[in-house]
Amino acid sequence: MAIDFQGRVAIVTGAGAGLGRSHALLLAERGAKVVVNDLGGGVDGTGGSSKAADLVVAEIKARGGEAVANHDSVSDVASAANIVKTAMDAFGRVDILVNNAGILRDKSFGKMEIADFDTVVDVHFLGSAYVTKAAWPIMQQQQYGRIVMTSSNSGLYGNFGQANYAGAKMAVVGLMNSLKQEGAKYGILVNTIAPVAATRMTEALLSPELLPHLKPEYVSQAVAYLCSEACGATGDIISAGAGFYAKMQVMESQGMFFGIDAKVTVEDFAANYAKITDMSKPQHFGSSMEEVAHIAKPFIK
Ligand code: NAD
């Protein structure tokens, strides 16, 4: 089945470089009209230039696609709304939103300034929330939307020196988990990508032998599918990089029920810790209410 985006309008944030550029090129190649957003700053988020987004727009047009540039920051409510306005003004709708813009302010936690925390959370988490918030009523009204968040194995599994980034990257998973429920009845599907790719963000972090095999294009294939009409999934987290793709999920052990109103002591908990945390039969819940229903089972006659 061929996947195309004829008649669809996509916004890709941070599309002036790296993964975002690759996502934008692929969506445009498959027929989407694309808003290429990028403020054109450094990896740490400082500075700015219209060049990054403009060059990608020129690249898309040179290949016969349709695109417009936007140079606003995702991390401010008004400018995030302006990204969506750019799409509405140029193309009259928004079907696809890829929240990709990102920065790094790596330092061990002891040395990390609070400002480094705020800035990273502002771009990754609040930026994703702000642009999504502006696109949401449009998608609700048209009863169609595809949103992709960009997380990271740094958040999902942890990484030294990235407490700010890891926290922000898990926060977008929480955002997705709620929005997948709220968007369902409007045909809005929300998924998350956890990429690994050779970009300016990772060139100093990953081993040089690996870098040539980590083409951003290998991630964009998964993003494009999650943005397509063909995709029926919502709430999925897809790990993608180097031609490897997998689903990631929060899992819970079978746990241990001590009995209704059991007087569990700290010592009881300690004595059973291995059983409580035994992950040999993991289970997943589709929502917090599903987990509560599971906990409540012994109480329901
Ligand atoms: P990149 O630095 O090449 O691209 C990020 C782009 O976002 C840049 O062009 C930058 O100018 C733009 N940007 C930054 N702040 C912005 C803002 N406030 N508003 C608008 N644009 C802004 O890095 P990349 O590797 O392509 O990263 C893309 C996304 O993928 C990021 O969210 C990143 O955290 C995530 N990610 C990347 C990897 C990887 O291996 N490259 C791994 C995990 C997650």
UniProtKB/TrEMBL annotation:
Belongs to the short-chain dehydrogenases/reductases (SDR) family. GO terms for molecular function: oxidoreductase activity. It comes from Ferrovibrio terrae. This is SDR family oxidoreductase. Keywords: Oxidoreductase. The lineage of its organism: Bacteria, Pseudomonadati, Pseudomonadota, Alphaproteobacteria, Rhodospirillales. SMART domains: PKS_KR (SM00822). It holds the Pfam family adh_short. Residues 8-199 form the Ketoreductase domain. Gene3D superfamilies: NAD(P)-binding Rossmann-like Domain. The keyword Cell division does not apply.
